[in-house]
Amino acid sequence: MTPNEIQIPRKLTTQLLHLAQLSPEFEICGLIGSQNGLPTTCYPITNQAKHARQRYLLDATGQIAAMASMRGSGEELFAIYHSHPTAPAQPSSTDLAMATYPDALYLIISLNTKGILEMRGFKIDGKNAQEIPLTLNG
Of 25, 32, 75, whose CA–CA distance to 51 is shortest? Predict the structure, then answer.
């Protein structure tokens, strides 16, 4: 069962959009931790992709450290985020093929919307992506 919508704290959304703006030419990526099912913490991770303008690959050391930090804080993996500097905020064929956490939300931030940043959330299972509406709270 997939939720009808997911609430994202305004502070967390602002942080994600700011990180994407700081890297307008390369995809940013990272993890979001949650407590009691509510997203709480952003864990930016270095993008190790060879073609970081069009792809992301979480740095393994950074990912392990973020997961350890989440466990230490009593958090669980809530979302994996990345940006699309020149593409819409929807999963690419590569995003679909590389998605390996079916329980996590995939957040995609687009910088390619006429000066307006866009962020959308998806549940990806296999090669299927289902959009989950996001709402701001706080």
Answer: 25
Q: What share of residues in the chain are helix, strand, coil (percent, to 5)?
A: 25, 40, 40
The pLDDT of residue 1 is: 40
What are the residues whose beta carbons fall under 8 Å from the beta carbon of 100, sequence distance 6 or more? none
Mean pLDDT for each consecutive 10-residue tract of the chain (138 residues)?
79 94 94 94 96 94 97 96 92 92 94 77 90 89
**pTM: predicted TM-score of the whole model, two decimal places:** 0.93
Rounded to 10 degrees, the C-alpha dihedral 92/132/81/89 comes to 40
- Both tokens of 110, joined, read 């687009």
Tokens for 98, please give them.
Answer: 């590389």
All structural domains of the chain: 6-137 (3.40.140.10)
Q: Could you give the angle at the alpha carbon of 23 between the alpha carbons of 21 and 29, nearest 5°?
A: 100
Q: How far apart are CA 56 and CA 58, in angstroms?
A: 6
SS3 57: coil
